[in-house]
Specification:
The complex is a heterodimer.
Chain A: H1 5-14, H2 17-23, H3 28-35, E1 39-42, H4 44-48, H5 52-55, H6 60-79, E2 87-91, H7 97-101, H8 103-116, E3 123-127, H9 133-138, E4 167-171, E5 193-197, H10 203-212, E6 218-222, E7 229-232, E8 241-245, E9 252-255, E10 262-266, E11 272-274, E12 283-288, H11 294-305, E13 311-316, E14 320-321, E15 335-340, E16 345-346, H12 355-360, E17 367-372, H13 389-401, E18 412-416, H14 422-434, E19 441-445, H15 465-482, E20 491-495, H16 502-508
Parallel strand pairs in A: 1-2, 2-3, 3-4, 4-5, 5-6, 6-8, 7-9, 8-10, 9-11, 10-12, 12-13, 13-15, 14-16, 15-17, 17-18, 18-19, 19-20
Chain B: H1 2-10, E1 14-18, E2 24-28, H2 29-32, H3 36-43, E3 52-53, H4 59-74, H5 81-94, H6 99-112, H7 115-129, H8 134-141, H9 149-158, H10 160-163
Parallel strand pairs in B: 1-3
Antiparallel strand pairs in B: 1-2
Pfam families (chain A): F-box, LRR_At1g61320_AtMIF1
Domain F-box (chain A): 3-35
Organism (chain A): Oryza meyeriana var. granulata
Chain lengths: 509, 173
């Protein structure tokens, strides 16, 4: 019974680094595999896997020394090999900053990277320790820049240039590629994934870097508090996913990437947000938490900027809803999903009916999903809340804006979180009229959505007591105002709260 | 769900395979298609009533492989989360075998190009090696220690860190 060596090698490469190192002592064959073990990882597990609990009671100083000793041992045992390492991961994020920033550790990180970052490297992950909490609250901004700077020069030694890098993940360090580093040109050309977390990088440095990332597919930036403006060049033709979170100083996102399909933005309101004028994607998902004008933007710009769009998902939390001005129509758009988060506010005079303008500008639409979060504040009485005389004027404007269009292909409409707001009933009735010829299914779901319940344990999304009360009113409104207007042949489903999950919850509370 | 049943139902044709020791097995065409080698044979019209001979796969592992493929083919596409979990449980039980069988499965899955099974068996082997001393691993997998005592000492010293149980911090200072 001979076990083929290549199978053994494959098995060996799948083992975590610690076990792979232990197995090296089994036989010469395993030692060979270990010399060629394709990845090097130092993280919490490697550093202290045997008694993780125990290490918590150490003083920081002791722990620091331990970590350094251990890291050095690992380094030495791997350093003697001459094989190409494809993946290097150094994760010290759970260690205190003082330890990592100590000169010895700084030297260790450098030494570590220099030992393993060679031509053939595909994946570099470097997580240094997070800020100490105290630092974070007392000093904010540039005073508190991370001390270790990722050595870009690693990738472009005098004699050989490393171009094999595909994934770069940095956390809590500085990253300063600049135009002076001409040797860096071409080093990033195979990078497909870049993830920067708490990285100090200036706008122009990031710009220089991105300009060279011609194969970039995914870009994630989080808590990078030095970035004020993010500009993505048109040349990044493969970029599909852009996620930006909690970058405090960021005020501008301008993307020219033509294939962008996913944009998640979670952070402070932006002064400028643009996805460029030449999107070639057929599917686009924009999720934003604190931007107030996602629907406005999508309505005003996307029909002309993204003419091929077939599926559009807009998910917002703090939308300031008003009727979008839509100079052009979405000629190809077939599927539209709009999620209104709980902090949506209506601009004076506007209400759910404002969305009619959006729908009317989608002549090819086939499915429409509107998700309304539990807890949205809406007003039925024009005298309650802000809207007053202005309201009727605005309503007139809305009527003028939407062209009484016919949504001739709309077959399926789902509204979840359906509430009893007059304007929502009005919007629903408007759809019934505009899509009378094609509509087949309409679901008015007063729960947060049966279609997205947690299938893994079969429970529905939670509903607050207030939402449960509102659901009853909404059911009545749907039956009274919507049902009579439903044309023959349309399958209308009006759904109340789930008897098992929601009503059961109310009994318990 | 309906789609998955249809997919499996479409290919009523049974494929016959013959183990190295001459035993015959049958499985639906969809199941046989999970093996790269069998799929190519079927595409080239080599599947006949006599059965496809598998010269290096003995009856015992082949029976297991037929089981595996039949189960996985029946649930190929459009899995619900429950079904996916059930399949995972099936895999976990399926691979609870002794090292001889594991070894046979590894070689056979590799030969027949059954990717899912290869992965499963490889991962299982890796899991078996983990956490064992070198001596235990040699015993489990019948590997000969071909190091000289000096070499062994040296390599064990070099990889000492991997064996270390976290020491009390006082000794590190």
């Amino acid at each position: 019974m001979e076990f083929p060596e290549d199978i053994w090698q494959h098995i060996h490469s799948l083992m975590p680094m610690r076990d792979a190192a232990r197995a090296a002592c089994v036989s010469r064959m395993f030692l060979r595999f270990w010399r060629g073990y394709p990845s090097v990882t130092i993280d919490r597990k490697i550093l202290a896997s045997s008694s993780q609990q125990g290490i918590r009671f150490w003083t920081e100083d002791e722990r620091g020394k331990y970590i350094l000793t251990k890291a050095q041992q690992v380094l030495e045992s791997r350093g003697s090999s001459s094989t190409v390492v494809r993946s290097v991961k150094l994760d010290l994020s759970t260690c205190q900053k003082v330890i990592v920033s100590a000169t010895s550790a700084g030297g260790l990180v450098d030494c570590w990277l220099r030992s393993f970052v060679k031509p053939g490297i595909e994946d570099i992950t470097l997580f240094l320790s997070e800020w100490d909490n105290n630092d974070y609250y007392y000093y904010y901004g540039h005073d508190c820049l991370p001390e270790y700077t990722f050595p870009c020069s690693l990738l472009s030694d005098d004699d050989e240039k490393i171009t094999s890098l595909q994934s770069l993940s940095l956390s809590s360090c500085g990253f300063h590629p600049n135009e002076g580093m001409t040797t860096l040109l071409g080093c990033w050309k195979n990078l497909s994934t870049v993830c920067l977390h708490r990285v100090a990088v200036a706008d122009e440095e990031l710009g220089f870097f991105l300009a060279g990332c011609l194969a970039l597919e995914r870009l994630t930036l989080s808590c990078c508090d030095t970035i004020g403006s993010l500009k993505i060049p048109h040349a990044l033709r493969r970029l599909r996913s852009l996620r930006v979170r909690s970058c405090r100083l960021l005020r501008t996102i301008e993307s020219g990437a033509p294939m962008l399909a996913t944009v998640w933005y979670d952070g402070w309101p932006l002064l400028r947000f643009s996805l460029g004028g030449a999107l070639e994607t057929t599917k686009l998902e924009v999720r934003a938490t604190r931007m107030g004008d996602v629907i406005q933007y999508a309505g005003a710009k996307l029909p002309s900027a993204a003419p091929d769009l077939e599926t559009l998902v807009l998910s917002t939390v703090y939308e300031r809803l008003k009727a979008p001005v839509m100079p052009d129509k979405f000629k190809q758009l077939k599927h539209l999903v709009i999620c209104l988060g709980r902090s949506t506010v209506f601009c004076a005079g506007y209400d759910f009916f404002s969305l009619a303008c959006f729908l009317d500008a989608c002549p090819a639409l086939e499915t429409f999903v509107l998700r309304i979060a539990d807890g949205i504040r809406w007003y039925n009485n024009p005298n309650r809340g802000k809207p007053d005389k202005e309201a009727s004027w605005k309503r007139q404007e809305v009527s003028e804006l939407h062209h009484g269009g016919i949504i001739g292909n709309l077959r399926k409409v789902t509204i979840t979180g359906f509430c009893s707001a007059n304007s929502l009933v009005e919007l629903t009735c408007h759809i019934l009229v505009a899509a009378a010829a094609s509509l087949e299914h309409m679901t008015l779901d007063t729960s947060p959505g049966y279609d997205r319940k947690h299938t893994s344990y079969g429970r529905c999304w939670q509903m607050s007591a207030e939402a449960l009360r509102e659901a009853e009113t909404a059911l009545a409104a749907a039956r009274k105002y919507v049902e009579p207007k439903v044309p023959d042949g349309v399958d209308l489903k009006v759904l109340g709260p789930c008897s098992r999950c929601h009503l059961g919850m109310r009994d318990n509370s | 769900m309906a789609a998955a049943t249809d997919d499996a139902g479409d290919s009523n044709e049974m494929i016959r395979v013959v183990s190295s020791d001459g035993e015959h097995f049958e499985m639906p065409e969809a199941a046989a298609n999970l093996s790269l080698v069998l799929r190519h044979m079927i595409e080239d019209d080599c599947a006949d009533a006599a059965g496809i001979p598998l010269a290096v796969v003995a009856a015992k592992p082949l029976a297991k492989i037929v089981d595996y493929c039949t189960k996985h083919a029946a649930k190929s596409s459009g899995l619900t989360i429950e079904e996916a979990e059930e399949l995972k449980r099936f895999d976990a039980e399926f691979i609870e075998v002794d090292t001889d069988m594991l070894y046979d499965l590894l070689v056979a899955a590799d030969f027949m190009g059954v990717e899912g099974l290869s992965k499963l068996a490889v991962q299982r082997t890796a899991d078996l090696i983990k956490g064992k001393t070198p001596e235990q691993n040699r015993e489990t997998f019948g590997i000969v220690n071909d190091f000289t005592p000096e070499e062994e000492e040296e390599i064990c010293k070099e990889n000492e860190w991997a064996f270390q149980i976290t020491k009390p911090p006082s000794r590190l200072c």
